[in-house]
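Here's my example:
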Amino acid sequence: MSRSKQEVRRKFRAAVFARDELTCRGCGYASTPERVEEELDAHHITDRHEMPNGGYVAENGISLCAACHQKAEAHHCGDAVPPGFAPAELYAIIGSSEETARAASED
């Protein structure tokens, strides 16, 4: 992975974790600054391959622990999505929408 892409990913993760206060927005698990990289992921709500510039904007990301991340990934895998983990529901949790995320990704 190129250094510029690593920096884009780092900024995306930092922005999402800061907005979500190092807390899984699915179950409420709170991490610490020292452990956040191991305990949480910055999940792309709309797949990065479907968004302008990869969708690396906070408006398209949500902090999730491993268990909640697996639930949210069900949508991307074509599996049944547990209640509360559909893209529209995840966007609502962070006060965003796919349209808002797309617009932010185009900048």
